[in-house]
Amino acid sequence: MTRYPALTMTSTATTSMRMLFGSMLFLASTSAFARPFQIVVPASQTVQERALTTMLVEESAKRTSSGGKPRVENALPLEGNDDILLIAPRTEVLRILSPDLRVPWQDALRELHPTDHPEAFSVVSLPHRGARITIVAGNDARGELFGAGWVLRQMRFASGTAIIPAKLNTFQAPDKAVRGHQIGYRFKNNTYDAWTLAQFEQGIRDLAIFGANTIQVIAPNSDDAPTSPLYPAPALDTVLGISGILQKYGLDCDLYYPEMRTDYTKADQVEAELHDFEALVRTMPRLDALYVPGGDPGHTPPEVLFPMLKRQAAILRRYHPNATVWLSAQGFDRGRYETFYRLMAQKPAWLTGIFFGPQSRDTFQTQRSRIPAQFPMQFYPDIAHTMHAQFPIPEWDPIFALTEGREPICPRPSAFAAIYRHYASLDTGFVTYSEGANDDLNKMLWNQLGWSPKTPIDRILREYARWFLHRESEQEQRTLEAIKGLEENWRGPIMSNRQIHRTFALFDELEREATPLQATHNGPWESLLYRATYDDYLQRRLARERGTERRALAALSDTGDAANRVANAERLLLASTPDPQEQSEHDRLFTLAGELFHDWGMQLSVKLYGASNWERGANLDRVDTPLTEAVWLHRAMDAALHKPDEPARLAALQEITHWTSPTSGTLYDDLGDSTAEPHLVHRTTWQDDPAMYGTAIDGIADRTLADGWRLSWLDYAETLYETPLELEYADLDPHRTYRIRITYAGEDYALPLRLTANDIEIHPARKRTSNPETVEFPIPSAAVAGGHLHLRWTGPAGAGGSGRGRQVAEVWLLPQP
Predict the structure, then answer these.
(1) What is the C-alpha separation between 402 and 698, in angstroms, rounded?
(2) What is the pTM of this model?
(3) CATH at residue 379
(4) From which residue to which does the signal peptide run (predicted)?
């Protein structure tokens, strides 16, 4: 990675002393064990155990300065004082241990209270010939793999030698039976369509080291283009290759198979689907489970889907007899849900269970209560997206939404720990929905919570910092703080968030201290640095552009004729240019984006790196997008100057400068901006309702300010399914009359909305006639007779899909003279 000049004011001398002191403390605490270690394994190993041994050797060697690989033996050495890492099935350990170690190991193991839980492991550390022997005993082959992964996460490498810490004693068993992640080798993905099989193997290793036991691949034919210009190999070859890698490591391979043909009531389409399905599953070296979504993507009614899936289950088990079959109710409308529940009540024998994912109109709790208890439920959580998603960031500043977008680099440790724990009692495991590496840290967090939901977040982040970012000792703590800072950056208004620059300064400092191992060809590190830089750049640029806009608006309110006011405002708008710091961060983003593409396959630009769409993580393409309403302002000023006379021109300029308060006493809401929607009703808290089924959600349209929109048109509030969108006003003058002005704006699809005021209809269900559309209605006197006004927008009942589209951008309550 390119070294950068200092962008913060941290003293180099102070930083150097901190590094030196931290290194001295670390070396002092570990030097007694900073000796070579060797690996001991049984003489007879399975394919999976041999893969585990190779992983141990290679992963420890690549993290040492010498690159030397530990020796692998099949018996304890008779002499020497090297540390030893013994990995074996629990039933084999006594046979390998020398007589003097057998009783101490049994005594230590007894104190750990081991069970026979699948995938569990114990780790016992004992003194041995002036050194130590660390014994990893797996209940099964996966237990050995996860035990080795746990030891690797505890190891230290900062001294240049792979060091196994002393006194590692633990017994661990996973809480969830399924801990998995979806890999989509497809054009839509923001990273994986550029990966080779070697990169996938490394990624699968890393996930397994953090406790994952399942990888779900998407079928080559899904809701996407048939190929990607970035593919290093055809989709089918890669899917089969990933299946082979999972067989090699003994991990589950699941298949996500959307039913994408047009009409499965037609026999020829069913037969064609079954033919394609069989051609795929019979060639997969390993296949443990089939997942078929009811929607998102998919569109088949359950009464048609169930019979076809029954036939697919029979085909699947012809080639993979122990495979399980899972179905979701995603995308169903109310009628289809009732049909789905009726079919589930028949307890189909071919079906294993149900998975719960995005675009489900019935909540996880509702589905669990209505599905027969014999069918387990799994979680399919979206951990990749920040808006227009299953778990949108609450009260996210619209500037972040406008620029960094729906699929940014998004470590959310605190939020996803809360989400995991909120739903944990409902599922037997999870396979996360992901669209690439932008959610890399979130995956590792879910892995570890799947082992133990009580695992402290800081512990997971420390292990992530050590394993992926190679930060140990004092650097480890600062890296932990920096990662947590990224989540804090997105809390509250961008302009008042002081954490943003603190987070950037931490990353910048760590970058300047970095060794080649820490920062060269290190995608996880580069991605976090990119996010920290982007956040800080946005804050700097927004402060400049908003300052310019304020001065331009002040010029429009000045004395003089309309033409002079506009000329002064235009001059101010054109004079705004970035300072050296802002320009440096802007340029740094382009450099980092290039490195992320070449080092990790991450596609942060459509034009430069072949991303499928800007919304698919390509937020480098929004680095230069306007952050204020300058384009709209230019057009509005030009329109004002074309008014027929000077009074009309001045009136038009006043309308611009008094947008939010056209009359005295106006009550205004810019819905979608959490700082400017005082009357918006939130019925539930994010903590109680992470998917926001029952409350208003702030969102933003798929447009930019360069289109000539106001930011107040781009951002909006919406609700899901039957939840009404509500505004509340108190202490109104019951003797005055009011009008309501509304801007209906948002995404290009819209639902017919009905508006009531204290249950009195203001307008019947109607779709907006343009986007945006501003309309105005009188409020009946009876609606404000008590001084309290409750506005309520409702949409059509029973909708399926995402449940979105009930979008309102601006509301003015206008008191009349």
Answers:
(1) 12
(2) 0.94
(3) 3.20.20.80
(4) 1-34
Half-sphere exposure at residue 19, Cβ-oriented, CA atoms within 13 angstroms: 15
Residues 262, 382, single domain; the answer is yes
Pairing relationship of beta strands 667-670 and 810-815 according to DSSP bridges = antiparallel
Q: In the chain, which residues have pLDDT < 70?
A: 1-36, 67
Give dist(CA 810, CA 717) in Å, integer.
Answer: 9
Q: What is the DSSP string of 659-694?
A: TT-SSTT-EEEETT-TTS-TTB---S-TTT-TT-TT
Residues whose CB falls within 8 Å of the CB of residue 534, separated by 6 or more in sequence, listed in order: 403, 404, 408, 589, 619, 623
Q: Are 438 and 527 in contact (CB under 8 A)?
A: yes
> Residue 130 to residues 32, 35, 84, 372, 609: CA-CA distances in angstroms?
10, 11, 11, 59, 54
Same structural domain for residues 139 and 196?
no
Residue 200, beta-bridge partner list? none
Q: How many domains is the chain built from?
A: 3
Instruction: Quote the DSSP letter at residue 217.
Output: E
Structure token pair of residue 665: 């006493």
Strand 697-700's sheet: what is its strand order? 697-700, 715-719, 806-808
CB 498 within 8 A of CB 425: no
* Structure tokens, 603: 């596609």
What element of type H or E holds 599?
A: helix 580-600
Identify whether residues 404 and 367 lie together within a single domain: yes
Claim to verify: residue 273 and residue 378 sit in the same structural domain:
yes
pLDDT at position 36: 67
Domain boundary among 455, 485, 517: 455
pLDDT digits (tens, 9 = 90+) for 609-649: 999 999 999 999 999 999 999 999 999 999 999 999 999 99
Put the strands of the sheet holding 83-89 in their side by side order: 72-73, 37-40, 83-89, 131-138, 121-128, 170-172
In a domain, 683, yes or no: yes
Is the separation of the CB atoms in 419 and 395 below 8 Å? no
Q: State residue 385's pLDDT score.
A: 98
Burial 273-300 (b: 16+ CB within 10 A, else e): beebbeebbeebebbbbbbbbbbbebbb
Asked whether residue 495 is domain-assigned, the answer is no
Query: What is the C-alpha separation between 775 and 770, in angstroms, rounded?
Result: 11
Same domain, 421 and 317: yes
pLDDT of residue 32: 38
Are 219 and 184 within 8 A, CB to CB? no
Q: Which positions ≥6 away from 621 have C-beta within 8 Å?
A: 604, 605, 606, 607, 611, 614
Q: What pLDDT is stored for residue 665 in this prediction?
A: 96
Strands 324-327 and 353-356: parallel
What CATH number should be reported for the domain holding residue 753?
Answer: 2.60.120
Domain boundary among 119, 146, 172: 172
| Chain Cα centroid distance, residue 488 | 15
Distance in angstroms (rounded) separating the CA atoms of residues 680 and 592: 40
Helix H, strand E, coil C: the string for 77-115 is CCCCCCEEEEEEEHHHHHHHCCHHHHHHHHHHHHHCCCC
Name the packing angle between helices 457-467 and 413-423 (round to 10°): 130
DSSP code for 477? H
328 shares a domain with 204: yes
**Domain hosting residue 723, numbered range:** 662-817
d(CA 768, CA 261): 33
Residue (of 152, 140, 139, 135) closest to 205 by Cα position: 152
Q: Which has the closest alpha carbon to 203: 431, 384, 436, 413?
A: 436
- What Cα–Cα distance (Å) separates residue 501 from each residue in 11, 48, 63, 788, 812? 16, 46, 31, 43, 35
For 280-327, write each residue's pLDDT tens digit.
999 999 999 999 999 999 999 999 999 999 999 999 999 999 999 999
My answer on whether 319 and 216 are in the same domain is: yes
Angle, vertex CA 550, rays to CA 548 and CA 553, nearest 5? 110
Contact indicator for 593, 534 with CB cutoff of 8 Å = no
pLDDT for 223 equals 83
